[in-house]
Amino acid sequence: MSNEVFSIQLAVRDYECDIQGIVNNAVYQNYLEHARHEFLKQAGVDFAEYAKKGIHLVVVRAELDYKSPLKSGDTFIVDLKLERESKVRFAFYQNVLRIADNRVMVKGKIIGTALNQRGRPEIPAALNRIIEDR
User: Fold this and answer.
1) The predicted structure's pLDDT at residue 1
2) Domain ranges of the chain
3) CATH entry, 6-133, from 3.40.190.10, 3.20.20.60, 3.10.129.10, 3.30.1540.20
4) Most CB contacts within 10 A, which of 38, 43, 120, 127?
5) For a pLDDT cut of 70, what percent of the chain falls above it?
6) pTM of the entire structure?
7) What rounded mean pLDDT belongs to the chain?
8) What angle do CA 121, 125, 129 make, to 5 degrees?
9) Which of these is catalytic: 18, 46, 65, 133?
């Protein structure tokens, strides 16, 4: 796995918390997805253009380990490393780290692929180059 890490800083918003005052477990999926989309956008992958061409980037598996909860007002970093998983799959290894103490709150492994116009797994050349460069 490459040592290159992409990261983005975010903050917990009140409405993301449940009755216990902690971030709802489902919200972490949004944080992780936002970081992946920002990474891909900065790498030159345009989701809208891919969709117009009939290419769809999809998640096929998500593994999350919840270590400790974030609370309203916490600031945190979502980082990721990209790695090839197989010929037609790639994996994002992601962490959510609370800035105040650099504590890992969530660890995730998100596996994705691209579906071509026929709905078959096929990684576009531009995306393949990004995966290989990581």
Assistant:
1) 37
2) 6-133
3) 3.10.129.10
4) 127
5) 97
6) 0.92
7) 94
8) 115
9) 18
